[in-house]
Amino acid sequence: MQPTELIYSSHDRCEHIHRDWIVERALESWTNKTLLYLPISSPSRGDQEYSWGTFSWYLDRFRVWGLEPRVFFWDDHLAREDVDLFFTWLYHSQVVILGGGRTDTGLQRYWDLGARWHGEGGKFQRVLRERQERGLLTAGFSAGADQLAQYSCDGLGPCLGQVRNVIVQLHYDHSRAGHLEWLARQKPDCHVFGLPNDSGLAVRQGWTARGNFWQMIRFVVDASWDRPEDQHHIKTRQGLKIVHRYADGREWVYNGGDALLRVIFPDGIHQRAWIGSPHHPSLVDYWTQEPTDLHSFDEVLARW
Fold first, then answer.
1. 37 near 71, Cβ under 8 Å?
2. Is residue 261 within 8 Å of residue 215, measured between CB atoms?
3. Cα separations in angstroms, 24 against 116, 216, 267
4. Fold type of domain 5-257
5. pLDDT mean over 81-100
6. Which alpha helices (H) appear in the chain, and where do they start and end?
7. Which pLDDT value is given to residue 227?
8. I want to staple 16 with a disulfide (CB 3.0 to 4.6 A). Which of 7, 72, 100, 222 is the partner?
């Protein structure tokens, strides 16, 4: 079950996340090895070009295997044919990455691309939903990760909601624990995660046979970036894992390879969840934090 969203926090191009989860996904296809990078959340054109430069050197390594990296820059004076091409690329690219910058800047520009040139402000979000339904991967880091979540970690403004009822605190370390707790109290219907550099959530969503919404989250922890001058930034190399804070103040720490399955009932309020780990034979009930008699997520989906 491959993810359709990857929201992550990174300092640079750590190998496990960028190669194993992003580039390899684009290279899987025999006929479509395209990867679209969107630095649109970076304010100026110079900022956007700098953002692309931090990725292009890495992606160029994989051209020999057929990878086709693409980039689209925002400009206030785009021609209609430029925007037509943007939405064509957005729809067809095997992988799309929403880059960093400012969450609100990017959201406004994504809206404007549809509204100003195609008369449909929500077109960007609609095409992302269609990508999700077709099983294509949309990734986001920093502002891009914030945008794919339900609400922004800065002020709780509504975002694209590709990853339903999830909020992420990017570049997390222990100094941000208080803010993580505040987010969890403000939005008790959401799962709130602190993502240290370098880590992420790989997500797949759907509907059970009983009509309930399910969400599978796989936790990715990457300690591969080993440049000595960057070690202060790579919190996972210092032992920090992905931190989740409950609305009641409790905490759970996820390791790489762990997974969470949520089942949300039709009222949108009531939900159940189970935690799986490769090191434990049975699933753990999310609410009680106690082992259950369930041994696989397939059992959960069949029951609920």
1. yes
2. yes
3. 35, 20, 38
4. Rossmann fold (3.40.50)
5. 98
6. 15, 24-27, 45-59, 80-92, 103-118, 123-133, 143-148, 177-186, 297-303
7. 77
8. 222
Report the alpha-carbon distance of residue 261 to residue 213 in Å, rounded: 11
Q: What is the pLDDT of residue 268?
A: 77
Structure token pair of residue 279: 């090191």
Count Cβ atoms within 10 A of the Cβ of residue 57 and give its class: 0-12 exposed, 13-18 middle, 19 or more buried: exposed
Which pLDDT value is given to residue 267? Answer: 86
| 295 in Cβ contact with 276 (< 8 Å) | no
Residue 100: which of 53, 132, 163, 156 has the closest Cα? 53
Residue 297 has φ and ψ, to the nearest 5°, of: -70, -25
For 25, the 3-state DSSP assignment is helix
CA–CA dist 226, 232 (Å, integer)? 11
Question: What are the distances in angstroms from CA 206 to CA 111, 126, 202, 280?
Answer: 25, 16, 14, 25
CA distance 166 to 143: 15
Q: Does residue 81 register a pLDDT over 90?
A: yes
Q: How confident is the model at residue 234 (pLDDT cuts 50, 70, 90)?
A: confident
Tokens of 197: 């550099």
- pTM over 0.85? The answer is yes
The per-residue DSSP string of 70-105 comes to EE----TT--HHHHHHHHHHHHH-SEEEE--S-HHH
Structure tokens given for 132: 């999700």
- Tens-digit pLDDT profile for residues 152-200: 999 999 999 999 999 999 999 999 999 999 999 999 999 999 999 999 9
Cα–Cα distance between 29 and 136 in angstroms, integer?
A: 11
Q: How far apart are CA 142 and CA 282, in angstroms?
A: 34
